[in-house]
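Suppose a colleague, Dr. K., hands you the sequence of a protein chain of 199 amino acids and asks what its three-dimensional shape might be. Before reaching for any lab equipment, you can write down a predicted structure in token form. Begin with the sequence itself:
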Amino acid sequence: MHPSHTPQRPLVLGSTSRYRHGLLSRLNLPFTVTAPEVDETPLAGETPRTLALRLALAKARAVARQHPQAVVIGSDQVADLGGYPLGKPGTHERAVAQLRQMRGQTVIFQTAVAVVCTATGFEQVDLAPVEVRFRHLSDDEIERYLRAEEPYDCAGSAKSEGLGIALLDAIVSDDPTALVGLPLIRTCRMLRAAGLVLP
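The predicted structure, expressed as tokens, is then:
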């Protein structure tokens, strides 16, 4: 049988993030979404890079247990300021504090993606670090930005795909969608390795 006629395994995104949902939709593959039940608390002494890799794999495995026949994507992003993890601020006050910490600094957004298929025993995880250089922001600029965009659900308190781009001096990355939450170049590579045919 020609491979293009073989039915594809179902694809499941193990994430409730609307950003990741939007990015995965670009591939024109049908997929469903399942929320991963994973404790995201960092372990003692865990680096942002190790944390992102561990959580991406944990999320993919958790969802793959519920959907053993499916190919499952898990992803996680940790903003890394000098080895210290910055989470989602959640509140205006915490976002102000984060942006003050990051002004004039280079923050590495450690974005990990994992692909797991229980039925075939397939498991891969990879990291797409994105180097983001923040401008020397004034308190006024920080305040105006946060009021305008309210990025309280974003690690590092800034949305590069929106107005947050105005806060930055440079973005250095080999996988351009990684900063938004899902490195699609690496994701495509893993999905092909897992046996999916991409359009």
